[in-house]
Amino acid sequence: MAQLERVAGGIYRLEGRVAGIDAVFAVYFIKDGDGAIVEPGPGVLVPDIQEAAKELGILSPQYIIPTHIHLDHAGSSGRLAEIFPDTTIVVNRQGAKHIVEPSRLIESTRMAFGDDFEATFGPILPVPESRLKIVSDGDRLTVGGRELLIINTPGHAAHHIAIFDTKTKGLFSGESLGLIYGPGYPPLPAVAPPSFDMELYLNDMENLKALKPRLIFYSHGTVGDEPERLIKTVMDNTRLVGDFILRDLRAGENEEAIISRVGDYLRNQFSAPLDDYELQSNVRGYIHYFRKKGLV
């Protein structure tokens, strides 16, 4: 089984890996009351999730809460809904229609990862609408003896939320506070077209910083125990990478050249091990945003 570790009071982290993908997929379990699963990840992780839940005694979790509906965060939700028939899946209104009817999500996943994406990541199955709890910014969910505060964080995507555990002061950030590619790496922006909005993204970070979290539970990395420094760093790096791309766009560089230059810059500046998909997604997300805003 993938490694399961306790990271805070009643919170456990499962570090999932996907064959052929050089990335961490962190699934979190809240062991309180009936329990909850935060960030269920892609469908290929379902067997590991089942085993971890059994080990923790979470036999029928109260909630499954993906931060957003992208494949690597919510792809397993439909299958887990079948396995745990009394569990409620939590999403905001923007994500609800796509998790109930995932055809557009599946099509965009095929475009990103190829027609055979299921062989690597597992299938994306629909979640029955009756099983959803639709949450709004500021809502609170009670899980055992703790409350989970929901914060809408639409900068990465309109369907993105963050979850703040008021008991441990730990923040499940999804991709709203960027990504840490490995121990010792600084957080870098997590950007994807077409929904990325840099202005909203930075505002999300300010809102999350105001919560004064003690821990950040990253979805594609470790647990951060210096939240103030990490949030400041990812805000600085979000602006830095954006300025770099905007300067090249205004200089008339084409997309392929900008992708190459940004890749070299991130590797030289941060030793960041981005794969081709991550690099292209980040650059194209920024370019789409700048064009949408009429800045180029």
Outline:
It is built from ten helices and 13 strands. It is an alpha/beta fold. It has one domain: Metallo-beta-lactamase, Chain A.
The domain count comes to: 1
**Spatial order of strands in the largest sheet:** 1-2-3-4-5-6-7
Q: Write down the Rg.
A: 18 Å
Sheet/helix structural class? alpha/beta
CATH secondary-structure class? Alpha Beta
Task: Determine the N-to-C terminus distance.
Answer: 49 Å
Say which CATH homologous superfamily is assigned: Ribonuclease Z/Hydroxyacylglutathione hydrolase-like
CATH topology: Metallo-beta-lactamase, Chain A
**What fraction of residues sit in β-strands?**
15-25%
Helix content, binned percent: 25-40%
The main pleated sheet reads as: 7 strands, mixed
Q: Choose one word for the global shape.
A: globular
What is the count of DSSP helices, taking H or I runs of 4+ residues? Answer: 10
Oligomer: single chain
Mean pLDDT: 94
Low-confidence segments, given as residue ranges, are: none
Write the H/E string, N to C.
EEEEHEHHEHHHEEEEEHEEHHH
The CATH architecture classification is 4-Layer Sandwich
The counted number of beta strands is 13
Q: Can you describe what's shown?
A:
With 296 residues, the protein is an alpha/beta fold. The chain has one domain (3-292): Metallo-beta-lactamase, Chain A, CATH 3.60.15. It is 39% helix and 22% strand. It has 10 helices and 13 strands. The protein has helices at residues 46-56, 71-74, 77-83, 93-100, 103-113, 117-121, 198-209, 227-250, 255-270, 276-292, and strands at residues 3-8, 11-18, 21-30, 36-38, 63-65, 88-92, 132-135, 140-143, 146-152, 161-165, 170-174, 215-218, 223-224. The strands form 2 sheets. Strands 1-2-3-4-5-6-7 form a 7-stranded mixed sheet. A 6-stranded mixed sheet has the order 8-9-10-11-12-13, with no helix packed on it. Strand 9 and strand 10 form a beta hairpin. Helix 9 (255-270) packs across helix 10. It is globular, with a radius of gyration of 18 Å.
